[in-house]
C-alpha cells in the first residue's frame, strides 16, 4: 500500500514538472484533464482499500486518509482550472471567428458581392475539440504572440516549384508589381498545396497593395495571417489588413486592426512600429 501511495504521488508531480520545462504544445489541456481524472479515480480506489483493510502507514508519514483527502482536493482544483482554460480558449476562438466573418462580410459588401452566400461564423483554428485551438488553421484574435515561428515546417520543394516562386519574388523586389502579382497567382494556381503557398499568398497581397488592388490585398493579408497567426509574416500581414482597409475608406475597422497588431505583437520590429504610427495618423485613430 505504501508503494502504491508513493507511485501515485510521483505520477502526479512528474507531469507537472515536465510541463514547466517543455513547450506548451507538448500536451493538450484535454490530455491533462484526463490524467487528473485518472489520478482522482485512483485516489478514490486507494481510499476504499484503506478503509476496508485498516492498513496504516508509519506514524512519521501522517494519517493516510488525511493525505489522500489533500491529494484529492488538489487534483480537483487542477481539473477545474484546466476546464476553465478550455472554456476561455473556446470563447477566444469563437470571438475570433466572428471578427473574421465580419471583415469578410464587409469586404464582400464593398466588392458588391452577394453576402447571402457567406457562411456562418466558424471558430478559428480549425475548431476547438480538445480544449486547444488546432494548429495551422489560425487562432484568431487571442492573446499576445511573438512572431518568428512559422506554423509550416521547412519542407523541400521541387526545383520547378521553387523557381516559379523565386521568379515572382524577384519581380516584387524589383518593383514590377503587376508581373509579381501575376507570378504569385500562377504559382498558387499550380501549387496550391505547396509549403510556400502561404508565403506566396502574403507576397501576392503585397503586390496587390502596391498596384492599388486594395480589396484583393485585404483578403490576401487576412488569409495569410489566419494561416500562420504566429508565423514570421504575421505582424506585417495583420498590418496589411489594416492599411488595406484604410485605403478602402474603412477607418474605424483600420484603427481596430492597428490596435490588434500592437496588442498581439508588442515586440514588433521598429520599421513596422513606425508604419503602424503612420497608419494611425492617416486614419485619425484615437489612442
From TrEMBL:
Residues 1-22 form the signal peptide. GO terms for biological process: FtsZ-dependent cytokinesis. Keywords: Cell cycle, Cell division, Coiled coil, Periplasm, Signal. It is found in: Periplasm. The keyword Cytoplasm does not apply. The keyword Transferase does not apply. Its main location: periplasm. Residues 29-88 form a coiled coil. InterPro entries: CpoB, CpoB_C, TPR-like_helical_dom_sf, TPR_rpt. Pfam families: TPR_16, TPR_6. One of its GO terms (cellular component) is outer membrane-bounded periplasmic space. Mediates coordination of peptidoglycan synthesis and outer membrane constriction during cell division. HAMAP family: CpoB. Belongs to the CpoB family. This is Cell division coordinator CpoB.
Amino acid at each position: 500500500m505504501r508503494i502504491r501511495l508513493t507511485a501515485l504521488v510521483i505520477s502526479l508531480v512528474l507531469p507537472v514538472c515536465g510541463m514547466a520545462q517543455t513547450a506548451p504544445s507538448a500536451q493538450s489541456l484535454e490530455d491533462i484533464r484526463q490524467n487528473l481524472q485518472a489520478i482522482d479515480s485512483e485516489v478514490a480506489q486507494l481510499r476504499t482499500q484503506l478503509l476496508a483493510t485498516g492498513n496504516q502507514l508509519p506514524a512519521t508519514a501522517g494519517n493516510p486518509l488525511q493525505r489522500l483527502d489533500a491529494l484529492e482536493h488538489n487534483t480537483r482544483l487542477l481539473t477545474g482550472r484546466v476546464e476553465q482554460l478550455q472554456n476561455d480558449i473556446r470563447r477566444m476562438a469563437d470571438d475570433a471567428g466572428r471578427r473574421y466573418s465580419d471583415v469578410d462580410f464587409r469586404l464582400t459588401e464593398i466588392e458588391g458581392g452577394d453576402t447571402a452566400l457567406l457562411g456562418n461564423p466558424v471558430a478559428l483554428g480549425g475548431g476547438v475539440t480538445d480544449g486547444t485551438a488546432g494548429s495551422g488553421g489560425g487562432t484568431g484574435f487571442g492573446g499576445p504572440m511573438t512572431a518568428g515561428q512559422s506554423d509550416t515546417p521547412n519542407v523541400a520543394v521541387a526545383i520547378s516549384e521553387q523557381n516559379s516562386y523565386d521568379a515572382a519574388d524577384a519581380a516584387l523586389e524589383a518593383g514590377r508589381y503587376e508581373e509579381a502579382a501575376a507570378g504569385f497567382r500562377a504559382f498558387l494556381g499550380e501549387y496550391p498545396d505547396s509549403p510556400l503557398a502561404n508565403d506566396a499568398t502574403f507576397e501576392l497581397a503585397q503586390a496587390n497593395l502596391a498596384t492599388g488592388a486594395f480589396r484583393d490585398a485585404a483578403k490576401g493579408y487576412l488569409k495569410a495571417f489566419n494561416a500562420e497567426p504566429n508565423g514570421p509574416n504575421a505582424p506585417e500581414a495583420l498590418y496589411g489588413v489594416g492599411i488595406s482597409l484604410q485605403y478602402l475608406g474603412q477607418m474605424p475597422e483600420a484603427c481596430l486592426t492597428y490596435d490588434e497588431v500592437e496588442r498581439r505583437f508588442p515586440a514588433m520590429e521598429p520599421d513596422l512600429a513606425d508604419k503602424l504610427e503612420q497608419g494611425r495618423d492617416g486614419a485619425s485613430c484615437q489612442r
